[in-house]
What does this fold into?
Amino acid sequence: MSRTLRLVWQDRRARVGLALVVLFALLAAFASVVASHDPTAQLDLVGKQYQPPSLAHPFGTDFYSRDLLSRVLHGARISLSIAVLSVAVSIVLGTAVGLAAGLAGGLVDQVLMRGVDGALAMPRLFLVLVVVALWEDIGVVGLVLILGLTSWFDTSRIVRAEVLSVKSRQFIAAARAVGLGLRGIVGRHLLPNIAGPIIVMATLGIGQMILLEAGLSYLGVGVRPPTPSWGQIIADGQQVLRTAPWVALFPGLAIVVTVLAFSLLGDGVRRALDPRSQ
Amino acid sequence: MNGQPLLAVDRLSKTFRSGGGLFGRARTIRAVHEVSFAIARGESLGLVGESGSGKTTLGRLILRLLTANSGTVHFDGTDVLTADRRTLRALRRRMQIVFQDSAGSLNPRMTIGSAVREPMTVHRLARRSELDTRVRTLFGEVGLDPILVDRYPHELSGGQRQRVGIARALSVEPKFVVLDEPVSALDVSVQAQVLNLLADLRERRSLTYLFIAHDLAVVRHLADRVAVMYFGKLVEIAPTPRLFAAPTHPYTTTLLAAIPVPDPRRARQRSMAGEPVGRSAGPDPAPAEPQPGSQPADACPFYPRCPHPAKDERCRREVPLLREIGVGRLVACHYADPSAPDRPPA
It folds into this structure.
């Protein structure tokens, strides 16, 4: 493990990604210290509505005269924690189901994969909307669960396919010949060899989750205003894209940089885990 | 030791199903069909046959890496095929395997040191502090430089990787090792080194081998007896010198004729004696697949390719069974002649 970390650190792109992820996490964690204003405070509805970026308000202000930098910083809290946690839920579930289907084969595989096919055939946003519509106010935990529980389907398919290809490799038979049990084979031989695609799925998932949360907030079923999330702020700014583009621009940039940072980091971890790539 | 063989295989069979699915009929292929033999303690039995003859499947069945359809395997009196999980684990310590494809049989994400260490941790054979020393000792024993412990399989040569496979198999101190074409994937020059290593180890650790190969020449120096397999069945078993001197099954004869002769003068002698020389003059290539229906089920499986002058209607009506034709000699051919004159070793 320490070897992997060292290799990640030696990889310049991964280092940039890691630095950005850590920076964003710190900013989100200490948003209340870093931010100059209360993200929900309406500063001056008459005089400070839709202020373009200035020294006093680096990201400008919105319709309610709220400081956008403060809102983006506080929004990072919601958006990042929702994204990271729901990806964790989705990757764990997807990997577990994919492993079960790939290893068990036969009827178990058939049932699980037909179920996944059915779920994949439904538009994800629609699925989430149906679930969200059943609850009044689901909160962040509810949102994490719903996003996580509705997004593991493709991961499970990919994991299953990887399991099928790796489990027929000879070193798995060799591990059995040595007397290793199922747990040892999965933990020491199978998972390390399918970690690459899982990490790629996770990094891509972070970006997708941020965007999905943004979409839900835009539709008014995600995080409730006035609590800021990046998607929420973009939704606010969307109506004034021509007159006050900075409202949507900065949270949008934050999403882009976050997704990029996770991709750089994820790619670095994947390379570090693969001894053949050095 | 007592007279009981270390390994006894009785009427072992394995069929694979292929095709089938939603459309079309599934075909069953008899990979191993009613194979019986025994290996004595300290003995080395060579198992030869062409690709697809079922020899690798047989090796896997014995170690229960594949599930047999019927038959039994006894190792040192223990029934391998019905052993429960604990017994099987204990058996895995005493029976090991070296694979043909050294690259594919090592986990690409694991250093070779860990690969050799793993079996010992699985069976708790050493304390954590002793493990490194034991790994180094094993490396030395198979002729690997201990500074390589932190290397990954792809950083090694084929010969080095195969030595890792051997060290891994030996780490649990087994009594019996299945060598599944251990040198087939190696350069000829490296082949000899690995074969010598295997011979040394056998002596030093008093090992029992099942040595699988598709090449009779490779088996010759390492096997006390040779079993010849054709289409899932044993067709001949004989002590190695006897088999080379006087093969009785026509398939064995053609296999022997396929061994290239390195000396051109000897080769010329062989061709002047009317014998086929080299691979080009060997037996007809095997049909890609056995054609079901093209041959009656009770015909000798070798009938279509058999060069024996005496082959006749009986070979098409009656499957020849493995019968004893001399001391320690078994053959499955109606017309095998036990009194065939010994010919000069090829």
Summary: The interface with chain A takes residues 60, 63, 65, 88-89, 92-93, 96-97, 99, 101, 104-110, 118-119, 122-123, 152, 154, 165, 168, 172 of chain B (CB under 8 Å). Chain B has two domains: 7-245, 250-337. The mean pLDDT of chain B is 84.
